[in-house]
Sequence to fold (656 residues):
Amino acid sequence: MQSLLSKPATPALPGAAAAAPFTRAARAARTGLSALSLGISLGLASLLGGCGGGGGTDATPAPQATLSAAATPLRHAQAASTPLAATVLPVGDIDKGTFCYAEPLALNADVSDLKSSFNANNWLATITGVYGRRWPSGKALAQAQANDQYFKGFVDTSSFNKLAESLMVAIHEETHMWDLAGSRTQWNSYTAAWIDDSYQVLQLPLYDSDGGFPRKEILALIKDDASSSMDDIYLKDAAQGDYHMQGITAEMNAGLMGLPAALAVAEYIDGIGASNSRDIALTNLSYLQLYLRTAKANHVGYFNKLKSDAAWRKFVLIEFLRTAYFIQQSEPHAAKLGSSKVAALKARVYAPENLAILEEFSGYKFPRQPGDACMGGASSGAPQISSQPASVTASIGQAVSFAVQASGTNLAYQWRKNGSAIPGAANATSYSIPAVQPGDAGAYSVQVSNAAGSVLSATATLVVNPAAVTISVTPASVSLQAGGTQTFSASVSGSSNTAVSWSVQEAGGGSVSSSGVYTAPATAGTYHVKATSQADSSKSALATITVTAAGGGGSGSWTGSLAGAGSSARFPSSAPGYYTSSASGTFTLKLSGPSTADYDIYLYKQSGSGWSVVAKSEGPTSTESISYRGTAGNYYVLLKSYSGSGSYTLSYVFPK
Fold:
């Protein structure tokens, strides 16, 4: 798609000498928002116009949508120059009656960390982070749309929940910017549909000069009030009602992006920001059906022109199955994402006369029940699902199983995870996981097929409870002189995030760095260093530090830990770095360490400006001792690991 560095003025729209701009109140009514909640200036609303359209920027590639168990991918969109050429849709499985639409979705993925870290400045990172986990193709779409100068105007950044509410409107409106050529000069000539960054249907000719007609003509076929609020805007408004086929497809495509945009954050939606996303998707699909019925009845030349275009026939099928797929996926949040009229809209879309026009136009067999996103699923002898797989919540290591019951002959099964076929033996009426791991969490479904057709089951969600986080600190206790230092380490289990935050429990109890290096205070006492898990802040562990006053000789003991061969520890570790003994006497040192280690101890005495070893113990174990008769002077002790690692206790008696 072409880059849009600055948005050009909106051209004249079909059916009017100049477009009557959508007012802020009218746009708010269309999306189910109050004019105040949109927070968009009247000038911006005027620029965008009622039905949008325009360019965008190239998106960062996202994980691909799955169009069939073995479908040929739709051709990737290419930046186009005038004149645009129609993209040829895939052949292969789509023409064999096995075509299904699905996308990778993980709607229960945990985004609580993104919610807790949200602020008004990181709103785009929050959006793309949520979509990256729950609706991958939406991540690329949001990143690309955010490059448009008007995207931010649709987004409410005052809170995470307000952001969630506004995403349907933002993605819906900005999808219009992806719908047409970047120049917006061919508004009346071509339509397009974004599926994701890898799968796009682009540059389908509208053939308006060959008999296209205003969409307000379809009003005569609407016999219910299921879409009355949108009919008032899209069909009865003086400017909106005069839009031709491009008005139908532009709103249909935008509705098919707004629905998953809302679905991905459904549990965080408080207000009305996305309460009609299901209505919009179904309404505009029904408008396409009614437009084709009106074309056949009153504009037969135009109907036949569209029907003669193979790309158009497949486009109609794909858009129908996309709608069915996202309506199915949004069922668990139906109350938040749709009005009470959704049932009537489903009845309209699946009415025999409205399915019949699509089948006559496209030549494909359409599913007969809502939620079935596979073509040919309702043909004679095709499978019918009587019992859907159920969602499961399990703990790590627990066995889980999904099962389906279906009727039909010579049935074949293919289980899917997040829309992609599961390799291996995932081809029976049930699919089992013997010992669940965190990576198994996701959305599971099964495609049941035979020679007569196929049907895709409802989605069952596997939620994996995380393992309990545990944490420990090494060494657990240590003695230091005032001003001394000690490096602590923390071990975290039960989470892939092993990072910790360090702190000192007592005020004035010294300090600890982010890497666990503790510095004792000048005041003697007992203090505690705390390591807190960053994965679960309710989990922490303590180490105890006994701080003694700095000075000359005396007794007590030192405890600590050596990391391995070549590591060492010096006592005293605090300034000035040595003991001063004012009298002659016996210097006694006793070391006890791990049985698998070889530790050695050395007693140093100052001689002039240098230091020399006056006594040492270098036995083959970590049990060592020194008894040295020395004179008054300055001394320090060095403990070294010859081999091995672990905790030790070093006791001493020095002359005072």
The radius of gyration is 35 Å.
